[in-house]
Every structure is written in structure tokens, then in C-alpha cells.
Amino acid sequence: QKRRSSQSRAIRPSIVISTGIKQRTSSNPPVPLTQRPLLPSGLLAALTAMSTATGAAASNSLSPTTSRRSSPSSRILTTPRGSLSCRLLSSSPSQSPLVPVSAMASPGAAGEAASRKKLLIFDAEKDLAASLAEHAAGLSEKFAAERSAFTVVLSGGSLIKALRKLAEPPYLEAVDWSRWHVFWADERVVPKDHADSNYKLAMDEFLSKVPVPANQVYAMNDALSVEGAADDYENCLKQLIKNGVIAVSPVTGFPKFDLMLLGMGPDGHIASLFPGHPIVNENQKLVTCVKDSPKPPPERITFTFPVINSSAHIALMVTGAGKAGAVHKALSGNESSSDLLPVEMVEPQDGEMTWFTDKPAMSMLSRI
Ligand SMILES: O=C1O[C@H](COP(=O)(O)O)[C@@H](O)[C@H](O)[C@H]1O
């Protein structure tokens, strides 16, 4: 019998920007901002821009850590669109668990009330990896219980190393791997045994170490052309929707994966959706292709934004100073619709998103 995987463990980020949208009531009036914000103004603006939840969603999302007001480490910042409770916490063994952190809402039409974003900042990569494992294992347990399947989407790159703790005790034994169905958000159109293959990377570093059934690992067909591979992968998704393995978002009508694990390149790309490339605007297909990727190899297939943004949970892992510029832009709140980095276009419509970051990645945001 599978043990409960993770509920008793609490991995603490070194800093949590724990944000929750509070509905204004007479007992919770706007509080004038008289102190210097804990957050840089740009980040505050970004958080503010995302704070459009209804009161019901907000109250659901508030954790005990954000329900207190105006303590030394917790201040309510007044914004034009609602009150934003922000709290920075340093880890110490004596602190109470911070999981789950509260969440903030993001804009969106029908999915507005249900959409949330969180930002976690870790001192050490090993802590980030532990927290990511805990997050994934908790969702695995939840979805396996709810729908007998857990649909997980991997990316390539540095994300895979950060998943290593899932293949170690206690998760190796505790997770019900038989429920996992594994997909790729993007794949390079190369043979599966090629050094550039995202499949090979995931197999070598993660999937070969955990007992996911081989027939539940959905790799790109590497015998096809780039267009053929994209169509084939889309057909695979459609078949699994028919079979009930992949859910469908009632909000968007697109496939709703249980957990979408994304990385981000230094240029702000996610999956194989690169800045300025026309496929970032694809709004019909589930899977599309790129033949001129600015990052080699040039031919890739990728999930489209409607699929990514329909996920139940998006975990975006971003580490290292090399990504600080894109992180700064993404969280600066100065976006204009013609100038969005792909990472800024990750906007859950029917779910929630957690950024797993480290201090170097956040280093261009002062006071973090
Ligand atoms: O090319 C790719 O890059 C991104 C980011 O990779 P990272 O090594 O900078 O984390 C990755 O998420 C994507 O899947 C991959 O194909």
C-alpha cells in the first residue's frame, strides 16, 4: 500500500512572497502605504496587475500566514485594485510550515476566480529541488485519488536535474508511479538517443529511476518530419482525451494537464515558444512546430499557449543569474501586449502557477 507521500513534510523556501488578495470590508479597509514596500515597485506592480480575484476566491486562497495584518514581517500594501498582503520570511527550524503559501489571482476571463500564482525563492538549489519534489508528489497523490491518473508534462533543460529528489526516498516508494502519464511540453526533432533529445535527458536523469509504466510515457515519434511529429503528438493527446486519461478544461476547452513542469531560457522562452516567434500566437492547435529555433537544434515541436495555460498546476523553475533579466522583465509589470516574453504569457486560465526560483534569478529585483 502506498504511503501518504508528502503531507507531513514541509520544505521551506528561504523567502516566500506569499500573496493573497483580500476583499475590502469594513474590518479590512485599505491601509495607507506609509512604509517602504517589501517588494520592489515593479514586482509589486506585477502582483497588483494579477490581483483581480473575487472575494470568494481570495478568501479560499488565504493561508494562516497571510491572515495577520501589519506585523513586522507582514504588511498590507494598498493597490488600486485591492489590498495585497505581502510577507517575506526567512527559513528557520522554529518557523511553522509555510505550505501551502497563499496565492494570488491572475487575470483571465472565465477562469479568473480560480487562477492563482505563487512565487517561491530558495537559497539553495537542493531546497528548491526538495520543494519541487514535495509539490509534485502532493499533486500526484491528489490526482491519483481524484481521477486515477496523474498527467505530468516535462520540459527539457535544467528542470530535469531539479526533479532528481522524486527518484529518491521517500518519494521513490511513496508515489504511486503507476498513475503517472508523462508528456513533453516540447521536444527537439532529433532521434531519441541524440544528446539534444529532451526524452533522452528525462529518461537518463529521471524516468529510468522511477517505475512509471513504459506505455504511459508519451514520447514524440522521432521517425517523422517536424510537421508530422507535431501532428502525431497532437493526435496522441486527442486520443488520450477520448480515453479519459487527459482531462479537458471546462473553461478553455483545451486539454487540462494535472501538472505542467516548465523551465525558462535566459531569453524568456518556455517550452519551444521563443520571443517574437509567430507560433506564440497559435490559438487553435494543441501542438505546433518550429523550424528555426534561435536555440539549437532548430527543429522542435511544442505545446501551444492554450494548452499550457489550461493546466491545473504549472510549476515554473527558474534559477541562476543568467535568467535574472528575463525574470525582472516578467515581474516588472511593465508589459505591453506587443512586447511580452513567452514567460509573461504563461497565464493559468483554469488553475494555478508556482514559480520555483533562487536568489540569483531574482537578483535584478532589489530588496529580494
Ligand atoms: O531548449 C529548451 O530550453 C528550455 C530552458 O532550458 P534551461 O536549461 O535554460 O532550463 C527548456 O525548458 C525547454 O524544454 C528546452 O527545450
UniProtKB/TrEMBL annotation:
Residues 125-355 form the Glucosamine/galactosamine-6-phosphate isomerase domain. Pathway: Carbohydrate degradation; pentose phosphate pathway; D-ribulose 5-phosphate from D-glucose 6-phosphate (oxidative stage): step 2/3. Keywords: Hydrolase. Residues 1-36, 55-79 are annotated as: Disordered. SUPFAM superfamilies: NagB/RpiA/CoA transferase-like. GO terms for cellular component: cytoplasm. Signal peptide: none annotated. Pfam families: Glucosamine_iso. GO terms for biological process: carbohydrate metabolic process; pentose-phosphate shunt. It catalyses: 6-phospho-D-glucono-1,5-lactone + H2O = 6-phospho-D-gluconate + H(+). Its EC number is 3.1.1.31. Hydrolysis of 6-phosphogluconolactone to 6-phosphogluconate. Belongs to the glucosamine/galactosamine-6-phosphate isomerase family. 6-phosphogluconolactonase subfamily. This is 6-phosphogluconolactonase.
